[in-house]
Amino acid sequence: MWLRSLLSCCLSLGLAWLSCSNWVRGQEKDSRPNILFLYADDQSTKTVGCYPESWEWVKTPNLDTFAKKGVRFTHCYLGSWCMPSRATLLTGRLPHSIESMTMAGQYPGSSYDPEKCPFWPSIFRKHGYQTAQIGKWHTGTDTGFGRDWDFQIVWNRPKHPENAGNYYGDQILAFQGIERQVSGYSTDNYTQWACDYIRGENRDPRKPW
Q: Taking a C-beta distance cutoff of 8 angstroms, is the pair 131, 137 a contact?
């Protein structure tokens, strides 16, 4: 499916657009559903209980509930590296057709044109949505690639090599572009910040997300 199961470094599961409109108060009058996308490095259908091919010992009741109430993808195509796969996610294009991004920006000679193929956060924004990204998200060391979110808390490993091994805590994170080192278990931190956003922090409660 998407990439390796580093649940401590991102908000979980790749493969599912999960509709969560009934989770947020005050959204009943808006017919547009809220969309929660759970994304993980190297996640496999064998490690999520809602898939028939999952191993017997796998127990993922919360993800299974999300999948039952939302959308569960069963087929996808990705690159052999995390960043081209994120480029696929951002653009909706197949891996072999993407002028993708390296740790430092775009591949030499590429000329990605956002006007021809805009990143999906901008598409959602045009339709009245707010977008947010929380967790591990490497799309270049600068802020120009895949960072046009309305709200973002990001761990950008390539930008700080000295902090790149801190998968589980003491990470250097950028909060809306302002960097600071954060203590605590990273998965717990990401989950708490995501829940805070869903509950209405750092966003306009009148808009879907």
A: no
